[in-house]
Here is the input.
Amino acid sequence: MFCGLLAVHGPTTSIDRTRRVEEPTAEVAAYVTADICAPNAALIEQIGQAEVVVLAIPENILESAVTAVAPLMSRDALLVHTASVQTVISELLLTEATRHRLQACGVDPMFAPALGFQGRPVALTTIRPGPRIDALARFMSEAGARVVRITPDEHDRLTASIQVATHASVLAFGLSICRSGIDISRCLELATPPYRAMLTLCARLCSGQPEVYREIQDVHPLAEQTRVQVRDCVQELSARSADRGDFEAMIAEMSGWLGNQQEILAADCARWFSSAPATTADV
Here is the structure.
């Protein structure tokens, strides 16, 4: 996705331990087979010439990659990471970028890469500022993205809710239905719009890369705290459902938090449900 974005502005090189494509494409001008954490001569040459290096790699090797790549980059080049957790790596990246006089930022697309930038949010954390970061933000905006500038700390506090709590809730819901022993076909025959929406979210997560969702639940520094909060709120719901007034007070608390966004979001939900299929064929 980032090669496609940047190829409009200059030739891109793809680096991986296993070469996946033999011939250049419109998005990638050249391919280098190398280990980003242990650069060979060909990789060292490419990194030294690059104006922008994007580390779109698993988070468990990101720190090693940053320390290997930063010393090889030319002064004022831009080093970008795409980690879903920003606080820890940002500290290391700031140290390395300052030492080697680089520009540095974190970019977290809040969507699956196959969906593309159009109309979708991208979190941008500036770690060591410079004009190349502004140019990258402009390129993403021109591709249709909604670029949201944010600090690493705020990013991680928000994604604890946006990703950790959401995925945990959907996966727990799916697991509970799966273990109930009821037939999925019968479920869909009687499915209410909210139930069907939850099942579609569960199906989407099950259709993705398990490692992506596992990393979010495992690596995020607020993951355990967030899951405990979700668990505690389920227990609170059980307790407060016994009293009508208490239950209504709980709903009112959430309504107050939603504020003037409640009406907008409720209208969105109504549109989604009205466009959903009434029945499911061949389930």
